[in-house]
Design a protein that fits this description.
By secondary structure, the chain is α+β, with helices and mostly antiparallel strands. It has 5 helices and 15 strands. 45% of the residues are buried. Bound molecules: calcium ion (3 copies). The site of one calcium ion has 6 residues, from loops.
Amino acid sequence: MKKRTNIQVVSRRQQQRPVMKFLKPMPFVVVLGIGLTLMGCGDGSDDGMARAQNTGTDFVAPTVFQAAGPDIASIQNTIEQYRIALKGNNNGNDGPHSDGRREINWDGGGVDTTTAPVTPFNTFLNTRGAQFTTTGTGLSQAPPSGGPQGGLATLFNNPTYGTIFSTFSPKRLFTPVDSNVTEAHFFVPGSNGTVAAKVSGFGAVFTDVDLPDGSGPGNKNGNRQSSTRIECFGTGGELIFSSLVPASPGDGSLSFLGIVFTDARIARVRITSGDASPGPNDDGTHDIVMMDDFLYGEPQPVQPTP
Ligand SMILES: [Ca+2]
Ligand SMILES: [Ca+2]
Ligand SMILES: [Ca+2]
């Protein structure tokens, strides 16, 4: 079945030439606008069904925002555009509301503690209408290093993690432990998880996405596949959108991928961060990735309120 590729893409090309000097002839931080297609990827049986639905005539294209580069400036403008596209205010811990958006920066007001891995992660369930789960041990908030518990470097017993990740919002990042998969489920804020909800859009910041690395056909290593992706599912569990997160070479880079539909239709999001569970060194065989800020549309009840 023919795939639809009429996805409207809003991209930012950020050129950071001093850092990119080894990448010629063009700067790497080209956002993969035209390379973006719908991908019914994944290994679950639901994906196979979703793939068929994806390519049907009822497919609705979201607007896609993406950027990657060596520092905060590389993605800042794209995130600002994404906030505008989500419309309305950042509702913080207030609400529920009929419009606007929610944001989570994992920073707890600027603390540097490492939170013990837990799933489901319900810290923002009642206040901001999002619950996070993983198939691993749990989900943790941590600075790359330091703080009373030592941050990611101690959590994963790998000192290199203190230097290869950076934050979009200091000081903490978010990560699954013993897994590279995080799922987001939405509920009406204030309902403490009792009223299922859907959102119009979801976006996330990632740090140190190395793949795809741009090696093309003919290279003895072949094309190295993407490591990091966001998949969005509808209220019936069907896959409604999937895309890779753009990469940037080196360590400590920041990437952003966000999508927004014209209406609330995303009930669940699956994030694959990196191609391996954190622990090993970030090297030629493992692309380890951490997450930072999440942004999403104000959760709206799946069932209309009477
Ligand atoms: Ca943060
Ligand atoms: Ca790296
Ligand atoms: Ca990496």
